[in-house]
Every structure is written in structure tokens, then in C-alpha cells.
Design brief:
about 150 residues, mainly alpha, about 75% helix
């Protein structure tokens, strides 16, 4: 699914949860506002970080990046006559990429959990707001690259 659509869905769900928290539970405070903004910003920074890496791949090894995108969008029910071998990416720091992805996901989920455990935010907006920022960060950082 496109980042814009996922970001919009997460943003609407997160703001809907914040509106529900404001109206029904009456627990919306300045800390809720700051936490939701912080989660949105943190998600955006993680999305920008991932997009910077993907743009680096696009510039340095475009054939590998294109093959991975083609493999991701290929229909799973259809088997092609010739399945190309997966190409490997070799660059300095490649071993740290899975660690960085896991750290980013842990950071987003962990800060959401902290916001929920502190009682600042309800679960729905706490989980959706960082992902809205993540997908929108990706969307806006790819802007102008893909035409």
C-alpha cells in the first residue's frame, strides 16, 4: 500500500482516538498534546531515516533496488518461468541495517508503550501516531525522486 494512504489512515485513526480521549474520558492534557506531537515527530524521523537509506540504495545499486521492488509487487499466485536469483547488496555498514530497522521499530513501539503506561495517551492514538509520522516522512522524503 502507498505510504500516503497508510499515513492518512494512521493519522485519521490517531486523531480520532485523541478526539475520543478529549470528549469521552476527559483525560486530554497538555502532556497528551506534547506526547502525540512527539510520537508523530519521532515516527517522521524514522521514516526519513529509512527513506534516506533507500535513496542511497537507489543511487548506488539501482538494479538491486529495482529487483527487490519488482519481487515485492509480483503477484504471489503467479509463478514466473524464470525466477531471478535474489541479488545481494554490498556496502559498508550493511551488517547494521537489520539492527537499525529493529531499533527503529522498537523505538516506535517502545515510546508508544511509555505514553500508554504513563496514562498520557489512550492505546489507539499512542500506537497510530508514530506510524502516521513514519509513513508521511517516507512519503514527503520520496517526493521529487519518483516521477
Amino acid at each position: 500500500l502507498p505510504s500516503g494512504l497508510l499515513g492518512l489512515d494512521c493519522m485519521l485513526g490517531g486523531h480520532g482516538g485523541l478526539a475520543s480521549q478529549f470528549v469521552s474520558t476527559n483525560t486530554y492534557t497538555w502532556m497528551t498534546f506534547l506526547a502525540s506531537f512527539g510520537l508523530l515527530l519521532l515516527g517522521g524521523l524514522c521514516g526519513i531515516g529509512q527513506t534516506v537509506y533507500h535513496r542511497y540504495l537507489l543511487n548506488s545499486v539501482p538494479e538491486v533496488f529495482a529487483a527487490r521492488i519488482r519481487a515485492a509487487v509480483r503477484r504471489t499466485g503467479k509463478r514466473s518461468k524464470v525466477d531471478p536469483r535474489p541479488m545481494t547488496i554490498k556496502h559498508p555498514g550493511r551488517a547494521f541495517v537489520p539492527v537499525a530497522y529493529a531499533a527503529g521499530a522498537f523505538l516506535l513501539l517502545g515510546t508508544s508503550a511509555v505514553a500508554m503506561m504513563q496514562g498520557v495517551m489512550e492505546p489507539l492514538p499512542a500506537v497510530l501516531m508514530p506510524w502516521a509520522g513514519f509513513y508521511w516522512g517516507k512519503l514527503f522524503w520520496w517526493r521529487g525522486v519518483v516521477r
